[in-house]
Amino acid sequence: QVQLTESGGGLVQAGDSLRLACTASGRTFTSNTMGWFRTAPGRDREFVAAITKNGGNTNTADSVKGRFAISRDTARNTIYLQMNTLKPEDTAVYYCASSASQIPAARPSYYTNWGQGTRVTVSS
Prior knowledge:
Layout: E1 2-7, E2 10-13, E3 18-26, E4 33-39, E5 46-52, E6 58-60, E7 68-73, E8 78-83, E9 92-99, E10 113-114, E11 118-123
Parallel strand pairs: 2-11
Antiparallel strand pairs: 1-3, 3-8, 4-5, 4-9, 5-6, 7-8, 9-10, 9-11
């Protein structure tokens, strides 16, 4: 079992930046790929970004490409999501997920472990 703990959410204004972190504990050797998803009020869970264990392969949603960047500190079992130029439509609960797969997939069904989420609110 892998436990995922997110941090870094908060209330910011449009145009601001935030960095989210997610640390894995437990059977972390099974976390070959880790990613971020978000759920906005009234909407389905949406893929944001994912990264493989060595950080060599990433996948980023078109909706955030150029503003958000995912990175990974394998030694710390931690991934980060640097979010720049935040917009009100980025308001959501952001979830960290991990998968034994080597593919930075966008489909939630690829991921077997999920964190509790961290809330990001962007005011206009």
